[in-house]
Structure formats: structure tokens, C-alpha cells
Amino acid sequence: MNDESDVHHRTGDLLARAEDRGTIGSWSWQAGQDQLEWSVGLYRLAGMEAFSVIPTLDVCRNLVHPDDLRAVGNWQALLAMEWLDDRIFRVIRPDGELRRVRLHGRAVRASDGGLLGISGICIDVTDRQASAVREDPGLTHAQVRAARAYLGWTAIELAEKAGVSFSTVRRVEMPGRRAVRDANLDAIRDAFTRSGVRFVVHDDGAIGIVGR
Prior knowledge:
This protein is α+β, with helices and mostly antiparallel strands. The protein has 10 helices and 8 strands. It has helices spanning about 5-20, 40-45, 55-65, 70, 75-80, 130, 140-150, 155-160, 165-170, 180-195; strands at about 25-30, 35-40, 85-90, 100-110, 115-125, 135, 200, 205-210. A hairpin with a 5-residue loop joins strand 1 and strand 2 (about 35-40). The relative contact order is 0.11.
């Protein structure tokens, strides 16, 4: 076995062990289909016997905690994205146990750009959620846009809820933004906090948001 084959083999072993523990699972969806394909590990993560149900889109949505459906987003809207990353939501297992799951996925496209489907993984982060994130004292443009999308707010609605001007919201959401008064940033953060959104930094340095 050459070095490259050995690396792939060891990587496969690690993934298999993770799936055996029910902490990670893979999935795929073909464009135009109502049904997904789940790995055995994803059934375990969901608290189900392997292949005990057909994983349709409705089955997936029904597993998600009602308060977290926005974190997953509208399925049709997701189809326009190339990457589905850092979406954390709660899954309600059939026995009532609640687990926190992080979703990652990538669109698969034909040579002409047409969507063929989406494939990805789900990782159970329940046991490390409390220690794996810390409050983020900053407020990046990406976090503001993500939080606004999570809550389904327009930029005008955010401005109204925070008591700032629409132009301020636009400046805050602009990459490499110009100076924004600390008081305005605090007002925007407070508006999101009142609606259950926290701004966090993961141990791996990734910046994100956490919904209630």
C-alpha cells in the first residue's frame, strides 16, 4: 500500500468509527427527488434503526426542533447555495432525546452548471456544544447577515428593531466596512440577543451564530 492509499485507508477507518458511535453521518439528495440517501451512521445519529424509515424531505424536517427550522432554512432556498456550512440545529429523536447537530453540505453540479444534487454530513455536537463555543465580543458583517437570515428579517426590519438607520445596517453588513459607532453595534447586537441569537467563536476559530 502506498502512502496516499494508506492515508485514505486510515481516514476511512476514522469515519467508520465515528459513524459506529453515532456521532457523524452522511447524506445525499438528487435534484427533483423527495427522498434522500442516509448512511447507517446518520440513522444512528437520528436515533433510528438503519433503514427503518425512508428519509424523505418531510421526515428530515419533522426531526428538526420546530424552533430551529429556520436554521436549516427553506429547502428550495438551499438549492441555490454552493456550500451549506455551520448550520447548527436540534434534532428530536423518536424517544424524545434532544441532540444538537451541525450540518455541512456541498452542491453537486453538471458541466453546464445545472444542479445534480447535494451531498453532505451531519455531526453530533451535543456533548461539546457548551465548551466548544464562546461568546464573540466582536460583530462581523457575516454574522450580522447570517443572524438576519436566520430570523427572516429584512435590513429595514433590523434597523427598526435596533433603533438605528437603514444606512447603518448596510454599513455593518458591508465587508471591510467603514467605522460604525459602538453604540449602534451594541444596539444591533441587543436586537438579535432579544430574539434569541448569540454570536460565538468555535474552538477551531470559526465564527458563527447560535439560535435558541
